[in-house]
Amino acid sequence: xxFDFDAVVDRRGTWxxxxxGVADRFGTDGLLPFTISDMDFxxxxxxxDALRDRVAHGVFGYTDWRNEDFxxxxxxxxxxxxxxxxxxxxxxxxxxxxxxxxxxxxMWTGTGDGVVVHTPTYDGFIKAITGLGRDLRPVxxxxxxxxxxxxxRPDSKVLVLCSPHNPTxxxxxxxxxxxxxxxxxxxxxxxxxxxxxADFVRDGVHLPWTRYGTGRWALITSGTKAFNFPALSxxxxxxxxxxxxxxxxxxxxxxxxxxxxxxxxxxxxxxxxRRGGPWLDDLNAYVAGNLRMLADRxxxxxxxxxxxxxxAGYLAWIDLRPLGIGSRTEDAVLQRELVEREKVxxxxxxxxxxxxxVRLNVGCPRSKAERxxxxxxxxxxxxx
Length: 384
Known about the structure:
Helix 5 links the parallel strand 3 (114-119) and strand 4. Helix content is 41%, strand content 15%. The longest helix has 25 residues, at 277-301. Strands 2-8-7-6-5-3-4 form a 7-stranded mixed sheet, sandwiched between helices. Strands 1-10-11-9 form a 4-stranded mixed sheet. The protein is an alpha/beta fold.
């Protein structure tokens, strides 16, 4: 069947962080948002149908995530999408990927310990790491020498890997992942691989960390990103060491009091992983069209940018430094143009630790994506 991604869904007045909460970050209501990483598309019909059936049942009592329907759906998804067999005895469950990361950091680090990340860095990682009193240790993507220096520090305890990478959309290669695993093992550093963007890979193949992890490691992910139901909450992970797996489950069920999952999240995951593949394939093709539209318009207006779509995701990470935008002051001038004159909200790169960049979310109908592309180009034309 075909899916209508051109349809516009009115999200205003639905408590949407992206739409109704835009003033919290940009200081102005009513902006057209291209901001946080959720999409403006309705979830797949198979997911919506499964949710309707579950709601019609009418009883929402305490629920156990350790059921074969859920675990076999995860096993099936990894096998058919990534060509990878997983051990579902190592699966854990939590309300969100960032909740899993925070729990793992509590398990594997202490106050002041170092946590290594690649830059630019997803701001959720920054908040989780620094909020727990850990020392954020940034490493530029592709700088293996800097990565080893940081991992070799005696108090560096965890590497947080984003695979594929947010915000750049980079897909790590087999050689890069093997090298990262070897360095982490050599220096006794645990690896937490956030793979929530894995289902958006278009250029290359997603390689789960389960293929590379040795010693202390965890893969954390969720179907909420790919199938656009983050408001249902729910994520799962795979923890490599049996003792660490048992400790994670113990902490969630006792210290955190989170023994029962959100049943509608389980329902949505099972439907998505069993029957949502065709929708996801069409979605990725549609998003690729949005990104190509953006690339063509940027190239026509500012060929010196040489911008190309990312390997994965629907987040366009755009380097504006060739246009002379590379400082916090210049970023602020551009943001004033975008907000005050164009009435759009586009994330500044400084949020991710890199001035002179923007991150534009094109996970939306093409009509909206075109408005965002044109607004950015007009604003750039006035400030450069």
